[in-house]
Structure formats: C-alpha cells, structure tokens
Amino acid sequence: MEPDPVVARLGAAWARVHEVVLQAQTAAEAVSQLVEVAQQLIPMAVGAGISLVDEDGVCTTVAATHVMVAQADELQYELGEGPCLRAWDTVSVQYVPDTTTDPRWPEWGRTVARAGIRSALSVPLVVQGQEIGAIQVYATEPHAFTDHEEYLLSLLAGPAAALLGDARTRRQPPRLDHTVQEAVTDRDRIERAVGVLMERRQLTEPTARSRLLDTSRAQGETLAQTAGHVLDDTDPPA
Fold first, then answer.
1. 146 falls within a domain
2. What's residue 29's pLDDT?
3. Which of 56, 101, 148, 153 has the fewest CB neighbours in a 10 Å radius?
C-alpha cells in the first residue's frame, strides 16, 4: 500500500514544528517560524499568517510570510469583516472558496481579489477554552483548499495558540518545551481518534479525517476536543 501523501507531509512538518519550538528563544520567534511551516505544509498557499485579538478586541497580525497576507489581514481589521475575524468571533473554521463570489464579506472580498487573493482558509486559535485569534492561509487561485488543508492547518493551530497564550499571559519567556509537549499530546490524540474511526466505521484514513473535521465544525470545537470525545466514546462522529 502506498503511503498517504498527506500523512507524509504532516510527519515532515511536525518534525519541523518540534525543531522550531525547541530551538526558538522566544514565543514570538517560534510563532514567526510556525507560519513558515504552514506555508510549506500547504504549498498552494501564497502566504500564511497569524492574527491575535487582545482583551480590548484590537486585532494584530503577529506573523506573516508574505506582504499580501499582512495586507489582507489589515483590511479585515479596517472593515471589521472577513474570515479571520469570523473564525475568532465564532470559534469556527472559515473557508472562502472564491473571494469574487463569496457573499459574506463583499467589500473585503472585492478588494483582496483585485490584489490577487482568490481563496482563504482561517482556523481559530483556542487556548484553555479561550479564543485568542486565528491562523490563516491565502491563495491566488479559487477553490485552492480542501478538507486536507483544513486538517493540517488545524493541527498547527494547537502549538500556535499555546505559544501566543503564553506570550499574552506571562512576562517571563514561556516554557517552550512545555508548549511543545502539549502540542504533541493534542496531535497524538487527533491521530489516535482518526485510527479509532477507521476501525470503528471501516473508513479510509482521508474519510476518517474528514469525518472528524465535520464533527468539530458542527460542534464548534477544536479538533483536539472532538478527538477526545471519540477516544472517550462520549460523542463519536456518526
């Protein structure tokens, strides 16, 4: 049986996440490198970024791999509309398949389309039950992202949220080794839940991942939270 290319990409990216977080001197440095990992993990993206919302509701892009990302984010902050803001506000994944036709944020969509952005994917960042921002990718082609990209970006959201949560609540440098251990635990929980669904429902691996994603969307939870329900058998996906 040929290896799943998504799993292979994820394994390589996760090894890079370990390296980034363990070698970084500060949370800010680690988060900046994590968006580089997101860009590498999702090659159809023209850029990746992380937005943070402070206690007063002020939004800031704390890391971006491309100027188009920073500009698209800043426009959302100015207009008060867009997928990153909605991802944070509703704690749910927001996908824009085509910025020229999506009716939810017309002014933002028209403006970024003229700049060359045609699709977007934004995943909320949640730490200790509190939404603090979003991680996002943009593409120059419409319909660029699928459930696979959502799954991969959702996994990266875990360490990004933990790092940003540390940076917001601590004056001293965060314990990055502790952060990485939390992220590893979440990743392992998600992968074990995928395996349980494959065995329990006789599903292929891509279908099991999609089923887990669908349930997390429907319940407004992170992937790790939904995976926990599957492993506890308290609320398994249908």
1. yes
2. 74
3. 56
